[in-house]
From TrEMBL:
Keyword annotations of the record: Glycoprotein, Hydrolase, Iron, Metal-binding, Secreted, Signal, Zinc
Protein name from the UniProt record: Purple acid phosphatase
Subcellular location: Secreted
GO MF terms held by the record: acid phosphatase activity; metal ion binding
Cofactor note: Binds 2 iron ions per subunit.
Domain Calcineurin-like phosphoesterase: 45-254
UniProt cofactor(s): Zn(2+); Fe cation
EC nos: 3.1.3.2
Natural source organism: Raphanus sativus
Highest taxon listed in the record's lineage: Eukaryota
Catalytic reactions of this protein: a phosphate monoester + H2O = an alcohol + phosphate
Residues the record lists as binding Fe cation 1: D51, D84, Y87, H253
Binding site for Fe cation 2: D84, N122, H216, H251
One Gene Ontology CC term in the entry: extracellular region
Amino acid sequence: MASLKYKPMNFIFHVFYLIFIFSAHSSTAELKRLLQPAKPDGIVRFLVIGDWGRGGSYNQSNVALQMGETGEKLNIDFVISTGDNFYDNGLLGLDDSAFQDSFTNIYNASSLQKPWYTVLGNHDYRGDVEAQLSPMLRALDKRWVCMRSFVVNAEIVEFLFVDTTPFVDKYFVQPNKHVYDWRGVLPRQRYLNNLLKEVDVALKESTAKWKIVIGHHPIKSAGHHRNTIELEKQLLPILHANEVDLYVNGHDHCLEHISSVESKIQFMTSGGGSKAWKGDVNHLDPEELKFYYDGQGFMSVDISEAELRVVFYDVSGNVLHHWKTYKEALYFAS
């Protein structure tokens, strides 16, 4: 039935697809900026999920159910996806039924009918990247917002979404049997240089009280993939220089909180959207590793002018870990 639904739209898809390929996502374009209006109380609430798209299997449906219940309790404004949205090899094209089978039909709770701000993961790059980036997917599900790198301004907080897969050397020099769709990325070094410059400028120009950066790959992790060396060398110094509050990622199939001993940045992994890796943990200094869970789940974030609060949940909706920090109020003499 899903394939029948797509067929009448094929011609429109293909025409728009050609326009999209030749007009979007160049390596020199400025970061697109989106506005996410805050509620009247000024508080921003959202969920974070990563590494999820498996047609409901590996507890994906159960995690989605708990996300719906938590989203309703918190009255969330949106959802963030940290990538690896469709396993194992991204979307095959605009008419791939995996979009409905792994997204629309799974995250169907009323509380989750909000914008989904989404980055690409390495598995997404193994498919038709331009299809996953295409705004034509919004004709199928209006929640879907996916770009390589972009900024979301939610007034008191600004979110910077960074395309991290092109930073990782092994996908280029040792791809093994995998084929990656590098359209829009090559020449690679120019793409990365431009992206790093755009990230630095966007963070410097931000006047938001809080700054959060989202990428698929971890900068710091005790999980299977451990630290991403390329991001430590190239992206992390920019985050330090611009006083970023949180770096949020997926890639490691776990839930994790690491504190930096070098700065105020907190590293949060939310990659437990479906298949998890039990027992796959590397021990870190307890001064850094505040929390690690090798199972499925997700996280929520509440942000006000004065406070940011993070909560991690398991597949049953149980609270596993919570953390909060504060911003000092600034007072000026009259």
